[in-house]
Amino acid sequence: MPKNAPDPVTAAAAPEEQVVDRPAQKPDHPRYCVEPGVAIRLADMSTGESEGYEAKSDVKAELDHHRERIVALQARLYAEQRRSLLIVLQAMDTGGKDGAIKHVFQGINPQGCRVWSFKAPSAEESSHDFLWRYHRRTPSRGMITIFNRSHYEDVLVVRVKRLVPEDVWRARYEAIRDFERTLARENVVILKFFLNISKDEQKRRLEARLQDPEKHWKFSSHDLKERAFWDDYQRAFEDAVNATSTAYAPWYVVPADKKWFRNLVIARTIADTLQSMDPRFPEAEEGLDTIVVPD
Ligand code: AMP
Ligand code: MG
Q1: What's this model's pTM, rounded to 2 decimal places?
Q2: Can you tell me which atom of ligand 1 is nearest the CA of 151?
Q3: What is the pLDDT of residues 237-253, one digit of tens each?
Q4: C-alpha 54, offset from chain centre
């Protein structure tokens, strides 16, 4: 932030941004937030919504504004050392988890932020209870931690690919709610995003990976095999979201066919959540105005 620029946390938005600024109390609620106890049907949820914006350029100023808010609020969260933020990102393959991380967290102090990407569990991880590898990566006080995939894989891929019997994965919904409630009681604020793309959009993204040499590294034939299970994954996501959207760890189902709109919704929700946490710089030592630093 330039020296004399207004503080993005407290300053009023610039006039052109004011129309799109929203109150910080209940982030994107109930638009994309899944109300606890109110079941959603993914088939009824928009993937292509963009609130009337037509192009990336339409949202640039607003996205920049929310990123600045995140950067400024993260500095306070880190200094405060009392609470933390856990952000869970889940999506179908190509759904945009990596892109969201790259675009939403630009400019954030790397010292206060960690990203953990969870792949198929190692032999050691598999030899523990399913939550073990996630719990040890949860944020310490002051930190923002992003889970790129998460404990939800253990009721998603694990269910779809029948890696454990049904009674085992079903019991995990309760285990997940208890786990998240424990974290919440210990001052971890939890935000969960399901980046909701359509099957057609996934086809376009897989084709783009095939066509662009710079994207070849992202293409995996494994994704094509998983695509054949699209309906099973949708059902697993729907059930997981419905079973685990709680007041202390809400799910946001983000329309994600337009990457720039997805980024806007995620940035806005995170900035509003951080603002509602109202992190404060710790009190300064007394008498700082009388201290002279010796030569
Ligand atoms: P990617 O995120 O594209 O690198 O892929 C990671 C892979 O790890 C995906 O195919 C996931 O389904 C898989 N994965 C992540 N967590 C688990 C888990 N708990 N059990 C089995 N597979 C998993
Ligand atoms: Mg992948």
Answers
A1: 0.91
A2: 19
A3: 999 999 999 999 999 99
A4: 24
